[in-house]
Design a protein that fits this description.
Number of strands of chain B: 12
Mean pLDDT of chain A: 92
Largest sheet of chain A: 7 strands, mixed
Number of helices of chain B: 0
Shape of chain A: globular
Helix content of chain A: under 10%
Largest interface: A-B, 27 and 21 residues
Low-confidence stretches of chain B: none
Shape of chain B: globular
Number of helices of chain A: 0
Radius of gyration of chain A: 13 Å
Oligomer: heterodimer
Distance between the termini of chain A: 36 Å
Mean pLDDT of chain B: 91
Distance between the termini of chain B: 41 Å
Chain lengths: 114, 117
Amino acid sequence: NAGVTQTPKFQVLKTGQSMTLQCAQDMNHNSMYWYRQDPGMGLRLIYYSASEGTTDKGEVPNGYNVSRLNKREFSLRLESAAPSQTSVYFCASSEVPQSSYEQYFGPGTRLTVT
Amino acid sequence: AQKVTQAQTEISVVEKEDVTLDCVYETRDTTYYLFWYKQPPSGELVFLIRRNSFDEQNEISGRYSWNFQKSTSSFNFTITASQVVDSAVYFCALSEASGSTLGRLYFGRGTQLTVWP
């Protein structure tokens, strides 16, 4: 039982390159989330998926796209990376409302855009 | 609108001192959940506690205690007899139990706690 896994753990991109961050959970949760963490800003929600087949924007969705591939997997895509997207990205999952809204987090992906 | 404020950006204490981390929240929902997470230097997010809006009892877990007061919209976290291993960033977060924001977590900006030996 791995919980929430993310790949890769580290990535360096050049401005304009694209990449996909992968996230998978094995807890059979219905909801999944992508956050970014910047110094002094806490975690901010990029996109979330309340259930398989649905996605919604969070606070900071610009420059990102997501895909809820199936119940287990939720990917985040940067189509044309910008230095402002340098951040640590966390994926999370939860079972809403059964689990009292606790979110389980992956280990994070540290992304640098040069 | 939902908002979580952690006014203390950084706190430094010496080992064995008690320290309280403040958290103030805003929500229009009558049913909501409050959380504290710890982020040690290794970077992962560690769940510490969840409290729902109907349970105002304080909670104690070892050296950790939490004081939830709806009257002041606060959910403060106290570490008693702090240790160097408590050094981390601590986040307070809010989740609403209804409406279009169901299940979303709203985080404060975090408090960096440094405990010196």
